[in-house]
Amino acid sequence: MFIKSADRSNVNSVRFSSALRKTLRISSVGLLVGMALIAGKAEAQSNVQIYGVVDNAIQTTWGKGPSGQTRTEMTSGYFAASRLGFKGTEDLGDGMKAFYQLEMGFGSDTGALQQGGRLFGRTSQVGINTSLGSLAFGRLGTPGSGTGPYNMTNGPKAIDPFYLGYGAAGWANTSNVMALPLRGDNSIMYRSPNMKGLTFAGLYSFQRDGAELPGGNSANASVIGLGLSYDHGPLFAMVSYDHINNPITGKPAQTALQIGAVYDFKVMKLHFLAGKERGEFLFSTAVEQAVSDATFADVGMTIPTTSGRIMLSLQSRNASQSQGAAYGRRIASVGYTYDLSKRTALNMAFSDSMANKSMSGNKDFNFLQAGFGISHFF
C-alpha cells in the first residue's frame, strides 16, 4: 500500500502533535514539582503561613414602634471578620526572630475589600522579636482595639462573650466606640515579654489614616495606644488607654479608657467591661454629632457545652452632649455557637436593643435582631 505525500504529512503532524502534548505534560509536571520544592524550601527557612476566615450569616432586624420596619440581609463577618493573611518568621540566631504579617479584610458576601479598600487593611507589619519583647512597624491595631495581633480585649480570653461579632450583640455597639476597631497607619508598636502574667504594649501612630501631612506633628491625627494585661490561672484582666490628636485647631483630643476582666470557673466564664470616652461622637446619626462624653459597661457569661457554648450579655452606654442633652442605650443578647469541627462553626444570636426616653422613637437604637451564620477558619 502506498501513502500519498499529503497523507505522509498528516501522519507526521499527528506524531508531532502527540509528542508535543506529551512533552508539555512532562514539562508542566516538572514545573509544578519544582514550584513545590521551592515553596517547601522557603517554608522551611521562613515558616510561611497562609490563613484566613470566611464568615457569612443571614440577619433579620425588626424595628420597634409604629414606624418600625423589617430588614433581612446577608452579612459578612458575623462571628469573625472574613480575612486572608500571610505571616512568617525567620530565625536570626541568638534568640532573635524577624517576623511579618499581611492581612486583608474582605466582605465574603460580596468579595469587596474592607478597611476603605486597602489591600492589607487589617494588619501590615514587619518587626523583630527578642527576649526583651517585640518591636513592629506598619499598620496596626491598638492594644484596646479588639483587633490585630497586639489587642488585649479579644481572642481566647475575650472580655465580652460575643467578641466584636454577632450583630448587635457584639460589644462594639455600645462600648468603646472610638477605639473599636482603632488601627493606625504609620505605627510603631512595642510589646513586652510575659513577666509573671503581666504584659505591656504601647503604640504610636504618626498619622492614623494615610500618609503623614506637612505642617508639623500637630497637623496629623496621631494616635497613642497603651495596654496592660494580667493573665494567670482562671483570671484575665486588662486596662487600655487610647488618645487621638485632633488636627483641627481648638478641638480637643479624643480619649478612651477601658478596663475589663474574665474569670473562668470551668463550668462558666464571667465577663466584665467598663470605660469612659471623652471628645467622641456617640453614634453615626446626625442628631448626635455633638456628643462629647460617654460611659459604658458590659457584663456577660459564657457557658460551655459538649458541642459549643451559650453566651449571655447586657450592655449599656450613656452619653452627654456639650449642649446638655443625654442619650442612653441598652442591649440584651443571648447566643449559641455550635462547633461542627475545630475550624467550622454555626453561630446564632438574638438581641433586644432599647434606647432611653429621649431616643425612644429612633429606629437605629430600638429594634429586635436575630442572626444565623457559618464560619470557617483555615
Q: Find the count of extended strands (DSSP E, 2+ residues).
A: 17
Give the uncertain stretches in residue-range form: 1-44, 281-288
Termini, distance in Å?
65 Å
Mean pLDDT equals 84
CATH class: Mainly Beta
Quick one: biggest sheet? 16 strands, antiparallel, barrel
SSE string, helix = H, strand = E?
A: HEEEEEEEEEEEEEEEEE
Named at the architecture level, the CATH assignment is: Beta Barrel
Strand order across the largest sheet: 1-3-4-5-6-7-8-9-10-11-12-13-14-15-16-17
Radius of gyration: 26 Å
Determine the fraction of residues in helical runs and give it as a percent range.
Answer: 10-25%
Percent range for β-strand residues? over 45%
- Tally of distinct domains: 1
Shape: globular
Number of helices: 1
Q: Which homologous superfamily in CATH is the superfamily? A: Porin
Class computed from helices, strands and strand pairing: mainly beta
Give the CATH topology: Porin
